[in-house]
Design a protein that fits this description.
Layout: H1 16-34, H2 38-43, H3 60-63, H4 72-120, H5 131-144, E1 149-152, E2 155-158, H6 159-178, H7 188-204, H8 207-247, H9 254-269
Antiparallel strand pairs: 1-2
Helix pairs in contact: 1-4, 4-5, 4-7, 5-6, 5-7, 6-7, 7-8
Length: 270
């Protein structure tokens, strides 16, 4: 049952975690304006950039969440979402919980976005901004207090309705981008990935549960992939041995000989 007011409106009090995140984002935006283009290149996220600096480029899954482009509207929209919904969430899960939600939602959003860039054939595409993080916070707040009233522009609505509209539009845009529509410059993958984490985190009750489930899903997929590869390799091996038995070793092609030699070495190491 929601603990939040159903019919009253007002500006929320600024909480410590939200304040810290606002200051970091605003400070880096000012720094970005002082050195145009450089900060985004250093801290922005792309598939090709993850492997730079001897693999340390992976930290960009975190750093991209704090740097925005030159357009102030991008920063403004994200910070408004963080202020209005982050303060609500921080009351429930505390300062540390909010920061972890921001970082983990943004990280999952970043992973989805770089995988999307591979699918679209644009591994160099740079992603910046806190949209994935803020979408995670919005969806978490909507799951936490779905019937709280908010004002969207001038229209009062339930928080769950607002979250469903925003996330639904991002999901549709992501689908259209994957179908080849224009707009791939917007990181809809990060939006949807962040929203997904916010939903899973609130529903599961703990970030660790979300991470454990994701880890379990990845591990299960990996095991199944290894099983299929082993089964396929055994199928090929059986066919080659049958061929050798019927036609002799000289009937094998060079590629088939290499396969047998490689498989024999692997079996001898076990």
């Amino acid at each position: 049952m929601d603990r939040y007011p159903q019919t009253s409106f007002g500006l929320p009090s600024l909480t410590r975690g939200v304040k810290a995140l606002l200051l970091i984002n605003a400070g880096l935006y000012v720094l970005h304006l002082a050195i145009p283009g450089q900060l985004a290149a250093w801290l922005g996220l792309s598939w090709s950039g993850l492997g730079e600096y001897l693999g340390l480029g992976i930290v960009r899954l975190v750093t991209y969440q704090f740097v925005h482009g030159e357009d102030p509207s991008h920063l403004l929209v994200n910070m408004l979402m963080l202020y209005f919904f982050g303060t609500m969430v921080e009351e429930r899960i505390g300062q540390r919980g909010l920061v972890w939600l921001y970082l983990l939602a943004g990280t999952l959003g970043g992973i989805v976005q770089v995988l999307l860039s591979l699918f679209l054939g644009t591994p160099q595409q740079l992603t910046v901004g806190a949209s994935g993080s803020c979408m995670g916070i919005l969806v978490y707040a909507a799951c936490m207090a779905p019937h709280s009233l908010v004002i969207f522009i001038v229209v009062p609505m339930r928080l769950w309705v607002l979250a469903a509209i925003v996330a639904g539009m991002d999901l549709i845009r992501l689908y259209l981008v994957m179908r080849g529509a224009r707009g791939a410059s917007v990181a809809y993958g990060a939006h949807v990935g962040g929203a997904l984490f916010g939903f899973l985190a609130e529903r599961s009750g703990h970030y660790g549960n979300v991470l454990w489930r994701l880890r379990g899903a990845v591990a299960s997929w990996s095991r199944e992939r290894r099983r299929r590869r082993a089964a396929r390799k055994q199928e090929i091996l059986d066919a080659l041995l049958e061929k050798v038995g019927k036609q002799g070793l000289g009937s094998l092609t060079p590629a088939e000989r290499r396969f047998l030699e490689r498989t024999s070495r692997e079996l001898s190491r076990r």
